[in-house]
Amino acid sequence: MRVLLINHFPLRGSGSGVYVANIAKSLVKRGHKVCIIMPENTTQITPIEGVKIHPVFFKREEIIEGQLDFNFPCMDPHPRSNLLFENMTDCQLEQYETAFRTAIEYEINEFKPDIIHTQHIWIISGLLVNYNIPYIITSHGAEFITYKKTNRFDKYGFNAVKGCSKIITISSDNEKDIINKFPEIRHKLAFVRNGYNSQDFFVEELNKEEVLKKFSINENFEKIVLFVGRISKMKGVDVLVKAAGIYENDKIATLIVGDGAYKTELESLKNELQLKNIIFLGSKSHEELRLLYNISDVLVLPSRKEALPLVAIEALACGTPAIVTDQSGMPNIINKDVGLVFKMDDEKMLAEKIKLILDKKVVFDKEWISDYAKNKYSQDIFMDKLLMLYEEIRGK
């Protein structure tokens, strides 16, 4: 099968980007041909063996031939772009459409896909209605952030759902958002949980002190609280920083992995609260993330909205319990055997939950947590279901 994967974001820096990269790797492993179209603002793109990558270039720091003269837009700030879709000019929106339409038509002629799998019920997905190729959409939920602010992009969404064969939902909240916005397409919905790459994330016995030194942390911390994700307001990292003001002591480090413009505001909050042991590490590779998950006592995701956080599943695969908010799809993943749930924006409750784990008043079985992730969320299980959908769509 020849599969064209399309995303509104690069392969690194967003959950949907990791999702696409994981699918591409798995498809190639199973003998399929894959091409990816996505935006980029750098030529430093990590190749994926056996995958054709077609970047649509945007402007940031690097000068790239043929690039659009603005950065790629986002629903929520990306580590490498702060341009939001709702702030695009009409001219930018027209250029954006034209660039992706050109890329899609080129690959339809050159790559000749049997099926197209696009991400988000959004602009690029809305363009696919014009081509006689079956396509499926995965909604990652972020598009509804912008739908709730403006109806400027509604025409793309309605075109996207009208022409698609299936829409993959990744959580119950995600499904509710879709039905509220597009009630007539309920029959097209298919619930398929995200999968993680079990070759990248697994339990390891590591020396905490040695791993910390790899990240230039020379203090011998006994306890590690970890956050992984985009540093944005939606991710609620400010709530974790405020909670650290309650639980922090000399033996506890709070590691924040990720990038984003909101980092400056968080650093100011850290200084205001006179916190010593909050450490910003920037973006990290999968291999580095595996090390951090394995030495951490708990992963904290204080998101204000999150459909199905892949980083939570990755942490569980490494045997690390997670604390998440009571919002969106997160309570669907985290039960009492693998983590704890707290009320969104309540830093006091979050601090209490963190202390329960750090003080071992609540104890988790590392191997059990890892098996839970593998048995429910491994990429192989996900791909079996996804390929069944592909075949169903091709057969129509």
Strand content: 15-25%
The CATH architecture of the largest domain can be named as 3-Layer(aba) Sandwich
CATH class identity of the largest domain: Alpha Beta
Work out the helix count: 15
- Which whole number gives the mean pLDDT? 94
Number of strands: 13
Write a concise keyword list for the protein shown above.
globular; Rossmann fold; 2 domains; alpha/beta; 13 strands; 39% helix; 396 residues; single chain; six-stranded parallel beta sheet
Overview of this structure, please?
With 396 residues, this protein is α/β, with parallel strands linked by helices. It contains 15 helices and 13 strands. It has helices spanning 15-29, 90-110, 123-127, 143-147, 154-163, 172-181, 208-214, 237-247, 263-272, 286-295, 310-317, 330-333, 347-358, 366-377, 379-394, and strands spanning 2-6, 33-40, 51-57, 115-119, 135-138, 166-169, 189-191, 223-228, 252-257, 278-282, 298-301, 322-325, 339-342. A 7-stranded parallel beta sheet has the order 3-2-1-4-5-6-7, with helices on both faces. Helix 12 (330-333) links the parallel strand 12 and strand 13. Helix 8 packs across helix 13 and helix 11 (310-317) crosses helix 14 (366-377). The two termini are 15 Å apart.
